[in-house]
Automatic annotation (TrEMBL):
Protein name (record): Formylmethanofuran dehydrogenase subunit E region
Keyword Transmembrane helix: no
InterPro entries for the chain: FmdE (IPR026328), FmdEsu_dom (IPR003814), tRNA_methyltr_O (IPR053194), Znf_DskA_TraR (IPR000962)
Origin organism lineage: Bacteria, Bacillati, Bacillota, Clostridia, Eubacteriales
Pfam families cross-referenced by the UniProt entry: FmdE, zf-dskA_traR
Residue stretches making up the Zinc finger DksA/TraR C4-type domain: 185-221
Any one GO MF annotation of this record: zinc ion binding
Domain Formylmethanofuran dehydrogenase subunit E: start-end pairs: 34-170
Keywords: Metal-binding, Zinc, Zinc-finger
Amino acid sequence: MLSLAVQIRGLLILKTEVNNMCMEKTDWERAVDFHGHSCPGLATGFRVAQIALSRLNEVRSPDEELVAIVENDACGIDAIMLLTGCTLGKGNLIYRDLGKQVYTFGSRSSGLALRVAVNSELLHNATPEVTALRTKVFGDTATEAEQEAFSQIQRQKIEQILNMPAEDFCNVEKIKFSLPGKARIFNSVKCQSCGEYVMEPRARVRNGEIVCMSCADEYSRGW
């Protein structure tokens, strides 16, 4: 028969496991942990990912089943990576530096693709007072009361984004989309200048020697 001490220890372990199960984090909490803080930008990407997965009838991509093309590098991209499984490392997250809240998602399994354009008015409807307050907060000149007021505005904005009707949040349209090829693994060659290795497609030739882009002399005529 187990000693009383062992029985008590077993009960404590069981209680801890049950508590951990009951306290399992939501997808939003996981996104906040991954990104580092909560903000309207993160909420925007979170909502975009939710809508895309739902409309495509897909789940998180363990490999390259989904492809995401994002047209900005803002906070929301972290939520998109976490929820959809589209990442730079797997090659199924493609970044285009266009500065727009527009996202394209394609499914290799179904062949369907969506273009999600976030309602710009939603993101740029701050009053002059809120804009001034934001300037103070990000300029480190806000008082403690002003910081708290701004935090409250941010929390309200996050709640609005996460809970508003999808049709008010964004425009979603099915599109014809040629899925990019899957990520490839290339051979690496040694740069004859710095000695570091570079993948073949990114190598250059300088004075007859193979060099990396960092060591190559850029040549441009303005176009």
